[in-house]
Design brief:
The chain is of the alpha+beta class and about 575 residues long. It is about 40% helix and about 20% strand.
Length: about 575
């Protein structure tokens, strides 16, 4: 038989060797790809990419989690480090043109993330012999060939390369360097010809998110009267850029003592703010839109969810209507095959929407004050509370239906916190803050034994409502049951977390402060930045296009956090 298309040759590269060992360990332990995906909180397709060498684990936290799940005793971490060293060596630049080895992870990943524009360039970091990091522009039509060259497997058959170090003139404010150093997975490229676009940003996806794309123009800016004044040297170029229907950001760079701070404004918001001041065109933006982990997290989540939902708008609406028949049932478990052709985010939205309506229908029938349990663990999942149009109204309606305060429990083990980037941890924090703002007392356990517990609402010892769409086998699983074994399991879980919550405190501020500490987030900074953003709202930073996305939850959460005392 001939070799399979995704067959790995372990001695071909560290990247292939890592994928090969992951697959061998998984099979030796009798785990399916889907089971490994569940255990490591990623998608099935991501596990496939790990194993076929297409895209290895992206950071140490991720590979540490895989190593623990597969019981590799540090072997996978060693292989990953070997791969990273190979990448670093392959990226080293001297007086000769940059040399790329047979296994350039950074290059191969950049190529795989680059949009299919024929003339688009690829932007990747490289290291000089003295340790200085520089930016290398790689033309997509040709990739750098020097010394050993590049394997066809690494660059998916792309033609021979040519490269040049990006000069200060091409990145005069250091925006590209700053962005890619701060946010792993973000890819920037320079279109050729540019057609008015300074940078094309490919925003990474996630376990279910699919990734997004945004065009950027970067201009000099200054702080004046507490506002950011962005100077536009070429009015026509800016107007043409802002008039296009695709998602765009206008970025202002404020330079101080050789360093730049960057501020972003949604292209549609900037369009109406372009004014002339003494012969120079300017756009005014609030300092609250400074690009940091808070604003990047919002950009990341909104662009991912918004683009995916807008892409499937009509078929999603039709599918939602087709699935209404399930509302007549007290129990249902619907697979993703019931919504063929829809993307993973559309499946998420359908599951979340159905579960919310199922709980609202069942709540009045519960015999006593219930306790809630939710499965969100990371910012990607939790940001749905802030962004999906039905989530904030659902929280308000459940609070009104209960008529008093309630509890909502989370299971977030320490390894999940360690593997989550800071912007995702901020989104998780904001989702919990939104709940606390409505009188919902959030409780937390780090015990991984509770990770498999489904989302539920339980009237202790009497009746339970199951409503799960997060990390499930299908789009949703719902039920209303008085079965003693199930009710007992949920009652015990809720009472255990209530008795020993990581964030136990008598006030919402105390609980949120404890959560910030657990998530390794600076409390005073959160209050300051959320307060700043709340004064202007998130829509000026990024405007949604999909009717299924709303800024109200995000803005309410920021307003609430901004109102909290910094010293308590």
């Amino acid at each position: 038989m001939g070799q399979q298309p995704n067959a790995l040759t372990p001695d071909q590269s560290p990247q292939h060797r890592l994928g090969y060992v992951i697959r061998e360990l998984r099979e030796a332990r009798g785990l399916s790809m889907r089971k490994l995906a569940t255990e490591t909180f990623v998608s099935h397709s991501k596990v496939q990419r790990w194993e076929n060498g297409e895209r290895p684990p992206g950071d140490r936290g991720e590979v540490e989690l895989i190593d623990r799940v597969l019981g590799a005793d540090g072997l996978l971490i060693e292989l990953w480090q070997e791969m990273v060293r190979a990448v670093s060596e392959s990226s080293r630049v001297s007086d000769s043109p940059p040399h790329v080895s047979d296994t350039p992870l950074g290059l191969a990943t950049a190529v795989s993330h680059t949009a299919a524009s024929e003339g688009e360039g690829i932007f990747v970091p490289a290291r000089l012999d003295d340790g200085t990091v520089v930016l290398v522009a790689l033309d997509r039509r040709t990739l750098l060939r020097a010394g050993a060259g590049i394997s066809a497997a690494a660059v998916a058959g792309l033609p021979t390369p040519a490269a040049a170090v990006i000069s200060a003139a091409e990145d005069p404010f250091g925006f590209a360097r700053n962005a890619t150093e701060n946010w792993s997975g973000l890819r920037l490229s320079r279109p050729v010809p540019d057609f008015g676009v300074d940078w094309q940003a490919l925003i990474p996806g996630g376990r279910s998110m699919l990734g997004s794309q945004v065009s950027l123009q970067v201009h000099p800016a200054r702080i004046e009267g507490g506002r950011v004044i962005v100077s536009i040297p070429d009015q026509r170029r800016a107007e043409e850029f802002l008039a296009r229907p695709n998602r765009s950001l206008l970025v202002g760079a404020v330079s101080t003592e050789g360093a730049s701070t960057f501020y972003a404004l949604d292209g549609r918001a900037a369009r109406s703010k372009l004014t002339k001041n003494g012969g120079v065109y300017e756009v005014v933006a609030p300092t609250a839109y400074e690009l940091d982990d808070l604003t990047y997290g919002i950009l990341w989540a909104v662009s991912n969810y918004d683009d995916a939902l807008q892409a499937d708008d009509q078929p999603l609406a039709e599918t939602r209507n087709d699935l209404k028949a399930y509302e007549r049932l007290s129990a249902s478990a619907v697979s993703r095959e019931a919504a063929p052709g829809l993307n993973t985010v559309a499946h998420m939205w359908l599951g979340s929407d159905f579960c919310a309506r199922h709980i609202l229908r069942a709540l009045p029938g519960l015999p006593e004050l219930p306790a809630f349990w939710t499965r969100e663990q990371q910012g990607e999942e939790a940001s749905a509370w802030l962004i999906f149009d039905h989530k904030y109204p659902y929280l308000r309606e459940t609070t009104k239906a209960i008529g008093s305060t309630s509890t909502r429990a989370f299971c977030i083990p320490e390894n999940v916190v360690r593997s989550s980037p800071r912007h995702e941890r901020i989104l998780l924090f904001l989702a919990v803050a939104l709940m606390e703002s409505l009188g919902i007392h959030a409780q937390f356990t780090a015990d991984p034994a509770y990770e498999t517990v489904e989302g539920f609402v339980v009237a202790p010892d009497k009746e339970a409502v199951i409503a799960n769409w997060v990390r499930g086998d299908g789009m949703w699983h719902v039920d209303v049951t008085a079965r003693s074994s199930i009710v007992r399991e949920f009652t015990i879980a809720a009472r255990d977390v209530d008795a020993d919550s990581l964030t136990a405190a008598p006030t919402a501020a105390g609980r949120l402060r404890a959560l910030a500490q657990y998530l390794d987030l600076p409390w005073s900074w959160l209050i300051q930045r959320c307060g700043q953003l709340a004064r202007y709202g998130s829509s000026g930073l990024i405007q949604s296009r999909s009717r299924l996305i709303s800024p109200s939850g995000m803005d309410a959460a920021c307003a609430y956090v901004g109102s909290l005392p910094a010293d308590r």
